[in-house]
Amino acid sequence: MSLLTFEPRPATPPRFKHPATPRALVPAVVAHRGSSAQLPEHTLAAYETAITDGAHGLEADVRLTRDGHLVCVHDRRVDRTSNGRGAVSELDLATLSTLDFGSWHGRERARQQQEPPRSAAPQQLLTLERLLELVCSASRPVSLAVETKHPTRWSGLVERELAHQLARFGLLRGRDGQLSQVRVMSFSSVALRRARALMPALALVQLTTRPSLLAPSGTSVWGPSIDVLRRHPELVGQAQARGRAVHVWTVDTRSDLELSRDLGVDAVITNRPAFALDALGGSVAA
Ligand code: G3P
Ligand code: CA
Fold first, then answer.
1. pTM reported for the whole predicted model
2. Residue 58 phi/psi, 5° resolution?
3. Which domain holds residue 249?
4. In terms of pLDDT, which residue wins out, 69 or 104?
5. Which residue among 59, 146, 222 is best mutated to probe the pocket of ligand 1, counting the most ligand atoms within 8 A of its Cβ?
6. Is 246 in a helix, a strand, or coil?
7. Which one of 68, 83, 178, 236 is most buried, by most CB atoms within 10 A?
8. Could you tell me if residue 96 is inside a domain?
9. How far does residue 187's CA lie from ligand 1's centre (Å)?
10. Average pLDDT, stretch 82-102?
């Protein structure tokens, strides 16, 4: 890989970068809930835009509906991001599919920018299945970090259904014996242990808001919040010295992007992939 150009990240998770790696490398850019600063989070439009923006990877939260479908929704309830009400786990796919997951975003952006209220275009619920179709049909390799949200009444059924869906798409392993282009992320170490048992060829990401490197064995990526990184920058090198890649979230400002780059993190998870790519420049740390 050239060090002078910004090349797409390979479909495999990052190789582990030792702290002594030259700083000419920059983190891979992962679109958090799609290009979600610009478009409603977790919608097909947000992910399509992220790919067009040049993101190396996509991040999505998944939850199980009452009738066992994995859908891309962050909150336990749909109230914030749709015109409906209720917990995802208590609604069925048919009901969720009637809701508008787009219009709220216009109002939210107007509020943030202190402008008069406006509506964004209506958007449909995004299923994991549709997101996997998008990833598999992309014109270049794009990684996908799937976060299983816990606690939920469905507990281990979430990882089981994720394994089922990935198997359907041939994503339980990568090409030529490499790791899959899909990673599983969770704050729950129990969920990561389940994922390791069900999907052994997937990289696992331990998410945390604490300055701790604790993670189940087999976890190859440490996923701290940017706040942890700001307060404990030394943990980046410590994680990498233990053979873990570092994927930090949510990195939206120039100063945080530069901090992440200077610390040598492997991937930044951002709501603003186009801005992040522009701000980081250089080649990808892979
Ligand atoms: O990518 C990790 C990050 O998404 C975890 O936090 O609340 O945005 O899912 P949250
Ligand atoms: Ca997430």
1. 0.90
2. -125, 145
3. 25-78+125-284
4. 69
5. 59
6. strand
7. 236
8. no
9. 9
10. 98
Instruction: Let me know if residue 138 belongs to a domain.
Output: yes
Q: Active site includes 42? A: no
pLDDT score of 283:
63
Give phi and psi for 203, each to the nearest 5.
Answer: -70, 145
Render pLDDT for 224-240 as a digit per residue (tens, 0 to 9): 999 999 999 999 999 99
18 is catalytic: no
Structural domains in the chain (count) = 1
Of the candidates 42, 56, 69, 74, the residue annotated as catalytic is 74
Nearest to 83 by CA among 95, 69, 67, 94: 95
Ligand 1 pocket residues where CB is under 6 Å: 32, 59, 61, 74, 147, 185, 207, 223, 249, 269
Whether 91 is in a domain gets the answer no
User: Does residue 229 form part of some domain?
Assistant: yes
C-alpha 4 to ligand 1 mean position (Å): 31
- Whole-number pLDDT of residue 111: 83
The CATH number that applies at residue 36 is: 3.20.20.190
Amino acid (one-letter) located at 86? G
pLDDT at 108: 83
Q: How far apart are CA 246 and CA 266, in angstroms?
A: 5
Cis-peptide into 250, omega within 30 deg: yes
Q: Which one is predicted more confidently, 285 or 19?
A: 285
Q: What pLDDT sits at residue 179?
A: 85
